[in-house]
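Pasting as-is:
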Amino acid sequence: MGSPSDYESVRNEAQRFYAAIKPIFSPALREFVHFNASGFNHIIFKSSRTERERSSQIARFKLLPRAVKLVAVSTTYQEYEEIFKEFEVKSYKKKLRKLKPVKYWGIIAILDGRKIKVILRKIGDNGTLHFWSIVPAWVTNKYRDTKFFSTMKGNPDED
């Protein structure tokens, strides 16, 4: 692993690339995917603000161009999961906790010689579809792959 300055330069370059991404139409979901700050932050942090290992972050940063390409070209998604999660919302100047549906889609492909999974997320029924994560090569659970609509392997909130 390189020096901290190597990490900083890779992260800064990835951040510049990410900030320049315009919404991309997903043929698989037939709507635009937005690349907002929550997706970039999720590459750096797991849930509850726990930072990912730097080597994992760098791998994900370097795969961002492939993630963009995969969203643009894929006509199908391979995984789908819907959960209910509590969010803090403001209502009449008061903070309340409210359950909202959170939908995740996983698009999996071997792209430019690398097996990757891009996770897209939508919060609430009227939420914006956005990039959530990119998962580098991972172990496939063959039993799961025999089912047509599967639940995602692992925890899509953290992956």
